[in-house]
Amino acid sequence: MTRQVRIDHRSAVHLAVRAAREAAEEAGLPGALPEKAAVLASELATNLHKHAVDGVLYVQPLPLGHGVEVVAADRGPGIGSVDAALTDGFTTSGTLGTGLGAIRRIATDLSIRTDPTGTLVAARLTVPGAAPGSAGAVGTVCLPVGPQEQGARHEDLACGDAAAVVETEAGRTAVLIDALGHGPAAAEAAGSAMTAFLADPGAPLSPLMTALHSALRRTRGAAVALLRNAGGTMEFCATGNVRLVLADGQRARGGPQGPPGIVGYNLPRPVVHRLPATAAGVWVLHTDGIDAAWSRDPAPFLLRLPPSLLAPALAHRHRHARDDAAAIALAP
Length: 332
Known about the structure:
2 domains, Heat Shock Protein 90, PPM-type-like_dom_sf, PPM-type phosphatase domain-containing protein, PPM-type_phosphatase-like_dom, 332 residues, HATPase_dom, five-stranded antiparallel beta sheet, alpha+beta
């Protein structure tokens, strides 16, 4: 589950620092890495407080690999020159101007995209010597309904959506789960489905969907989508209201949709769609907590984002506030 901190007052910076430190500790990052994660959050949150409109920080474990990421999103006014902003001493507000330069030195991987409608910054921190992992090729976000930014304990929040990406011999496999409703009962259903998925994520998609159906029988059930990059082919299997979209830099095209049904209650016969894994594009899975209208007339800025920024951008700009929301973005 993604920690969200809305940076709408100065004290929210302290909430961001705490969220990043806790996320790093829970991810098992050793030594000084939790404090480094806290510094990343502090610098990004301070920048949002001083310079941005509608700033939000998202903190979560990396979707692949051993680490954490801190993503800052806002609605403008944008950064005039990213290169200048990354230079120590640069300032537009009379401060020392070392924020983005410090972030670049601390972060294992840093992605920045900006235009007048807003800026997105993803700072990722991994264990030294670890395999490079997916870098920006995978992005996720998973947010429970409700105001996380008011200081609620992360462990007290319940999310009926769940998302994961796993490397298997069969290919990089993603699962997106949207349990019926929200709250603790929905979170229990999502957890049961996730446990079943992680037990054998490399299984063929049709039997894997059937295994999730069995795991969800004693719960309220869920909509589920499975997406696998199997070499030159994308395999897709879904049931219920989970949306697949291909963003190719120029437009967004809807992919096949799963048939109506509830995994755990009335699963229709699973159908696996095989689609070409085009090199120019990002595959996006999202639950109905993200407004599907984003893909009908998408902003060009969104279409050019890498996966690590696209998923949180959709949550920030197109989320339904009264529902859990999750998204996965995958590059081939």
